C-alpha cells in the first residue's frame, strides 16, 4: 500500500508545529483580524480548522491537491508521490481564513492557497469568487489561478466550511499605510507604506516605490475593466490586503489575490450593455470617466497597519493612479479588448472637464456610497484637495 503524505500544521506567526498537545489547538479561532469569536456564535477551534483543511485535501484520494500539482507541473502526479503537506494558517480575514499549503514532492516545494469561508458572509462570496477568477484568468496574469472547490462538514460542531484551492504567490507580501516611527512631532507625523515581510522583516517603501505601488494597483484594475459592458472588479480594499507586492532587484511586481464581485457599475446596466454595441464611444468614455474617478478615490483609502483607523494616502497616489490607469488602457488596447480610438480619445475627453466639473462628478460618485460606510467622512474631508491634484495631473499630461 503506497505511503500517504504526512500532514503538519503551523500558524503563520509561529515557527513550530501545532498539534493536539499545544494549547492553541483547542482555542477558538477569531472571526476576523478585529473580532474575537464568541462562544455562542461559532465554536470552531484551531484544531477544527486544520482537520477541515486536511479533510478537503484528502477527499477522494487526494484528488484536489494532486490535480493542482499536476496542473502546476504540467504532468500527472499520484498521491503517493507527495511526501509531506504542511498547512499554514495565514490570517483571519473579514471573509476568509486562508491557509498556505506547502507540498513536498520529488525534492521540490510547491505552494498553494486554500481559502476557507466559515462565516455566512464568507460563504456568500466564495463560490462566486471561484467562478470570477476562472472567468478572468484568460487575458492577464495578475490574479491567482484556481483549481478546485468544495465543502467540508465538521459533524460534531454541525458547521460547514466552504473552500477552494488556488495559486499561491510566493514571495509576495501584504502592505498598508503606517506611521513613520521617526516622526518629530505629532503634527509632523508622516504616513508611509509598510510592507509586511515575515521573512526579512517589515520595511517602508521609498517615494518612488510608493508611486509605483499605486500605479500598479490602478493598472491591474483598469486591465480588468470591460469598457463595453462596464463590468469592473468592485468592491476592493487596500485595508483588506487585496493586493500584494514583491520587490526584487529594484523591480516591483503586484498581484490581486481576491475578487469579491465582477459586475457592471451603472444602475441600468443590462439595458445599457445591450444597447451599447461599441459604436457609442461617447457613452463608453462617460462610463470610463466614472470608473477612473472612483478608482482615484478608492486607491487612496486604507487603515493604519491594516486594522486601525481609516486613513487617506499621501498625494503621490494621485499621480500613480493616473499613470497606472493609462498603462492599463494601453494594455487593453494592445490586447484588442477595447477600441484603439477609446484609449486615444480618453485624455482629450477628460481634459475638457473643468475642476468644478470634476469635483461635482466626484461628489456624485461619493453620494452613491453607503451612508454607513466608515470611510465617508475621510473622503469628504479630502475630496476637494484630491480633485485639485487630479486636475493638475491631467493638465500636465
Walk me through the structure.
By secondary structure, this protein is of the alpha+beta class. The chain has 2 domains: 6-167, no CATH class; 175-395. The chain is built from 9 helices and 15 strands. It has helices at residues 46-73, 120-136, 207-223, 269-275, 281-298, 316-334, 340-351, 355-366, 376-395; strands at 6-11, 82-89, 99-105, 108-117, 146-154, 159-167, 175-179, 191-195, 203-204, 231-233, 243-248, 251-256, 262-264, 301-303, 310-312. The strands form 5 sheets. It has a 6-stranded mixed β-sheet with strand order 1-2-3-4-6-5, sandwiched between helices. Helix 5 (281-298) crosses helix 7, helix 5 (281-298) crosses helix 8 and helix 8 packs antiparallel against helix 9 (376-395). The termini are far apart. The relative contact order is 0.09.
- Placed side by side, the strands forming the largest sheet appear as 1-2-3-4-6-5
Radius of gyration: 23 Å
Query: Helices and strands, in N-to-C order?
Result: EHEEEHEEEEEHEEEEHHEEHHHH
Secondary structural class = alpha+beta
Q: What's the number of extended β-strand segments?
A: 15
**End-to-end CA span:** 68 Å
Binned, the helix content reads 25-40%
List low-pLDDT spans. none
Q: Any idea how many domains?
A: 2
What about the largest sheet?
6 strands, mixed
Shape category: globular
Number of helices: 9
How much strand?
15-25%
Mean pLDDT across the residues is: 90
Structure characteristics:
397 residues, alpha+beta, six-stranded mixed sheet, three-stranded antiparallel sheet, 15 strands
Secondary structure: elements and pairs:
Blueprint: E1 6-11, H1 46-73, E2 82-89, E3 99-105, E4 108-117, H2 120-136, E5 146-154, E6 159-167, E7 175-179, E8 191-195, E9 203-204, H3 207-223, E10 231-233, E11 243-248, E12 251-256, E13 262-264, H4 269-275, H5 281-298, E14 301-303, E15 310-312, H6 316-334, H7 340-351, H8 355-366, H9 376-395
Parallel strand pairs: 1-2
Antiparallel strand pairs: 2-3, 3-4, 4-6, 5-6, 7-8, 8-9, 10-13, 11-12, 14-15
Helix pairs in contact: 3-6, 5-7, 5-8, 8-9
Amino acid at each position: 500500500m503506497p505511503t500517504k503524505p504526512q500532514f503538519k500544521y503551523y500558524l503563520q506567526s509561529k515557527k513550530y508545529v501545532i498539534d493536539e498537545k499545544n494549547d492553541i489547538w483547542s482555542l477558538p479561532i477569531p472571526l476576523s483580524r478585529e473580532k474575537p469569536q464568541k462562544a455562542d456564535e461559532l465554536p470552531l477551534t484551531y484544531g477544527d480548522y486544520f482537520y477541515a483543511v486536511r479533510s478537503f485535501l484528502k477527499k477522494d484520494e487526494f484528488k484536489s491537491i494532486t490535480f493542482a500539482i499536476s496542473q502546476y507541473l504540467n504532468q500527472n502526479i499520484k498521491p503517493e508521490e507527495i511526501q509531506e503537506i504542511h498547512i499554514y494558517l495565514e490570517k483571519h480575514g473579514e471573509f476568509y481564513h486562508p491557509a498556505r499549503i506547502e507540498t513536498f514532492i520529488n525534492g521540490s516545494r510547491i505552494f498553494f492557497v486554500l481559502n476557507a469561508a466559515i462565516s455566512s458572509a464568507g460563504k456568500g462570496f466564495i463560490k462566486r469568487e471561484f467562478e470570477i477568477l476562472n472567468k478572468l484568468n484568460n487575458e492577464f496574469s495578475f490574479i491567482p489561478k484556481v483549481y478546485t472547490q468544495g465543502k467540508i462538514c465538521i459533524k460534531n460542531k454541525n458547521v460547514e466550511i466552504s473552500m477552494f484551492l488556488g495559486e499561491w504567490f510566493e514571495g509576495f507580501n501584504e502592505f498598508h499605510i503606517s506611521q513613520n516611527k521617526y516622526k518629530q512631532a505629532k503634527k509632523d507625523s508622516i504616513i508611509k507604506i509598510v510592507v509586511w515581510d515575515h521573512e526579512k522583516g517589515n520595511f517602508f517603501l521609498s517615494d518612488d516605490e510608493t508611486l509605483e505601488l499605486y500605479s500598479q494597483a490602478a493598472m491591474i484594475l483598469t486591465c480588468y475593466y470591460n469598457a463595453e459592458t462596464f463590468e469592473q472588479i468592485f468592491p476592493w480594499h487596500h485595508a483588506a490586503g487585496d493586493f500584494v507586492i514583491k520587490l526584487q532587484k529594484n523591480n516591483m511586481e503586484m498581484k490581486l489575490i481576491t475578487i469579491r464581485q465582477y459586475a457592471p457599475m451603472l444602475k441600468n446596466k443590462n439595458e445599457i450593455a445591450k444597447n451599447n454595441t461599441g459604436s457609442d464611444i461617447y457613452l463608453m468614455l462617460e462610463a470610463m470617466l466614472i470608473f477612473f474617478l472612483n478608482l482615484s478615490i478608492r486607491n487612496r483609502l486604507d487603515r493604519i497597519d491594516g486594522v486601525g483607523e481609516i486613513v487617506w494616502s499621501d498625494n503621490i497616489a494621485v499621480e500613480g493612479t493616473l499613470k497606472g490607469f493609462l498603462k492599463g488602457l494601453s494594455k487593453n488596447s494592445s490586447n484588442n479588448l477595447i477600441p484603439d480610438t477609446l484609449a486615444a480619445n480618453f485624455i482629450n475627453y477628460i481634459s475638457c472637464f473643468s475642476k468644478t466639473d470634476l469635483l461635482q462628478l466626484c461628489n456624485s460618485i461619493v453620494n452613491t456610497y453607503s451612508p454607513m460606510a466608515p470611510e465617508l467622512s475621510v473622503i469628504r474631508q479630502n475630496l476637494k484637495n484630491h480633485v485639485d491634484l487630479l486636475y493638475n495631473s491631467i493638465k500636465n499630461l
